[in-house]
Amino acid sequence: MRYAEVAVLVRARAVDRLFDYLVPEGMELFAGDAVEVPFGAQRVEGYVLALKDHAQDDSVSYRAITQKLSGQRPPLTKDLIELLDFMRKRYFCTWAAAVSTVLPPVIRSPGKRYYQLDRQWVALHGTQDADADLIAGLDKVFTKKARLAEATLLEKGFSRALLTRFVRQGCLTLELGGSTVSRRSEIWVNAVPDAALNRVRSAHKRELLILLQEKGAPQRYAELLEQGLVTSEMIRSLKAQGLVQVISKPVNESGEETEKRLALTEEQRAAVASIVELIDAKKHETILLQGVTGSGKTEVYLQAIERALQKGLQALVMVPEIALTTQIVARFRRRFGSRVAVLHSRMSERERRHQFASIYEGVADVVVGARSAVFAPLDRLGLLVIDEEHEATYKQDRDPRYVAREIAAWRAARANAPLILGSATPSLEVMYRVESGRYTKRMLKERATGRPLPEVRIVDMRQEMKMNQQGLLSRALRDALKDSFEHQEQAVLLLNRRGFSSFLLCRECGETLTCPHCDVTLTVHRTPEHTLLCHFCNYRAPLRDTCPACGGGRMRTFGAGTQQLEQEVLSWFPNVRVLRMDVDTTAGVGTHEQILSAFSKGEADVLLGTQMIAKGHDFSRVSLVGVVAADAALHVPDFRSAERTFQLLVQVAGRAGRHGREGRVVIQTFAPDHYAIQAAAAQDYEQFYRTELPLRRRLEYPPFTEIAQFIVTHDEESKAREGAQQLHHLLEASLKGCERVQLLSAAPAVVGRIRGAYRYQVVVKYHSFRAVSKRLREAFDQAVAVCGNGVSLHVDINSWMTL
Ligand code: ADP
Ligand code: ZN
């Protein structure tokens, strides 16, 4: 008898354990396979985590698996199976939640069948240097048919190895589930000369044909796909109509057809060498690659990855938000061609399925993606990279609230692979680990292009107010804009508004009010009565008009919108072309890319928007960056607000003057002397770090402690509050006797209400997750059990763990 230990996809916490099932005679099953199992009166989907000869209790008769859902390959690779347990323990989630986070539903086919690989081989023309006899044999099998199922070819005596060889020679490609993938060859598309456009009814297809005709040369399919211009369906039907040619060009091992690598600077060379050494030795180590903006970190990643690939290993590259990083993906594609798979949530389902297929089949061995790509089913990881490691987007803000950096660290350690963390402004957590000797550091101090870093000027908005300047743009920023327009250059204006909370700011001296216990900004809370509130510990103070620091009478709430800024820019410069990028203008799929590409093509003079414009872009004609309200970031009620402000300012400043004239940056603020703003203006990470670290130590914030934030929500405020208080009691009881643990009172959460539900939070600070995790979990589970209907509980481990 064989038994399978199965994680069933049943959400209820009450049945959150593994179940044993009997494996029916003759069912070929591996750990990681998807199965259908009986569960109560239902049949549910489950995942085999282990196979064994004995069940938990041999005297019980176990029910049998009803069917196997996955295809040839188990969807969960070995390390992903182990990762489930880590996720459960770290993020307090259920087996079911862990599985559904690791494996997105998109890789299941629309029916209940799981991830069916329909392998077909497609005959191509223009075979060169292929073994003539074998090809003749192949042609015979393919007579009249363009594609054949793999089984047919295997039956005819062609082995998989032989088929793969044909692919390399460019006379076959492989299709998986209807999408073309093929190792070492790339698909190019070209319009047939004089293709009759009037035969095409669909606007999308016509658009594509016009584009191809305009280009007049074959275009790389992968790039068209990336730009959202094609689907494989479109190409297939256009091909059938004889309107396009589909060409497969081999990409050989030495990387012809792809971009050449750059000659490295001395600093880059040293960085690559140290990574390569680890790859060669199969040694896990975490390296912080700290490079100023524009220092060429990407080139370091690319060349290190090349080494991993040479060794037959795979690479995983995480970027903060894929929609904002089209440029980086295009660069990876130019270097590694179809060996690159891209994973992110803004792709069509079909496209995502295709990307997964190419990973499972080993066609893609470099995965580039946003947060969830950290679960890519790679079983030969040789290198992991997290670009801009300090970005908050690596943390998921819904359950399970995992941190992709932690998962990457876990996978790297398990795979004996180096983990590279790249940043110009590393998180305090990472730098602290460098200092304590746990991570190593490599620096890139110069811009690779030799361009100087931009010049930064701080504008004191208090002075502007005294001069009776009322608008959002200071005189200095207006002058700078004028100058940049006169030189036909572009400008970026950042109006950072994580605007869910408002705070009081003295228009005369720039003072804000902070919690006496937690040192985070007090925010204006409107329910039940107007008060100032600390979201960490529930400290409250009355609203006020007079400033406690200068006695002035203009304490006002702070906040302005991007639309208002747009109007103001236009009122000063009626003839400039403005592009606005914020949540309102980027709702649709692909809209980020459209706005960014329009801007980089010079279709506008100003790009203004929220923090989404700050990251990673490489615009060649931007010489001016204006930060309209640095204070908004500074006073987010979070102990990381200074750090986030510093990072944001340095990032956005780095967009200026990357190529042409020397860049200029204007930062407007009511707090010109704040250390985060001063250090950002000097672009001096050390200066920031040296000031921030002691503050964190004094107030016992990360990296000196970890913080767990429990969130309780309910449609009625009183129920949410009571739930939080109940949880607080339970935590108090279970943490009794624990040393160096701080439990703070239940308080309204920073985002006090989401979609009508009220949110309360309870914060716990501790020094070692290992020491408290069981106790926290116990209280959490009890709270889940005792809290009434409609109350939901979440946990957010709000820091980078001590692995
Ligand atoms: P970062 O990611 O560190 O901000 P990028 O990788 O975007 O920097 O590089 C900035 C610019 O420098 C890019 O235009 C890139 O092509 C160029 N670059 C990188 N390395 C080199 C090099 N070794 N020689 C010349 N140019 C380089
Ligand atoms: Zn407080």
Give a short overview.
Helix 9 (266-281) runs parallel beside helix 10 (297-310), helix 21 (675-682) packs antiparallel against helix 22 (685-699) and helix 23 packs across helix 24 (769-786). By secondary structure, the chain is of the alpha/beta class.
In the CATH classification, which architecture of the largest domain applies? 3-Layer(aba) Sandwich
Number of helices: 24
Spatially, the strands of the biggest sheet line up as 15-16-14-17-18-13-19
Tally of strands: 35
At the fold tier of CATH, the topology name of the largest domain is Rossmann fold
Number of domains: 7
Rg (CA only): 29 Å
Shape: globular
The helix-and-strand class reads alpha/beta
Mind explaining what this structure looks like?
By secondary structure, the protein is of the alpha/beta class. The chain folds into 7 domains: 3-106, GIY-YIG endonuclease; 113-176; 185-250; 268-440, 3-Layer(aba) Sandwich (Rossmann fold); 455-497 and 562-696, Rossmann fold (3-Layer(aba) Sandwich), CATH 3.40.50.300; 501-559, no CATH class; 706-797, 2-Layer Sandwich (Alpha-Beta Plaits), CATH 3.30.70.360. The chain is 33% helix and 22% strand. The protein is built from 24 helices and 35 strands. The strands form 8 sheets. A 7-stranded parallel sheet has the order 15-16-14-17-18-13-19, with helices on both faces. A 6-stranded parallel sheet has the order 20-30-29-21-28-27, with helices on both faces. Strands 2-1-4-3-5 form a 5-stranded antiparallel sheet. Strand 3 (34-39) and strand 4 (42-52) form a beta hairpin. Its EC number is 5.6.2.4. GO terms for molecular function: 3'-5' DNA helicase activity; ATP binding; DNA binding; hydrolase activity; zinc ion binding. Its cofactor is Zn(2+). Zn(2+) 1 binds at residues 506, 509, 547, 550. Zn(2+) 2 binds at residues 515, 518, 534, 537.
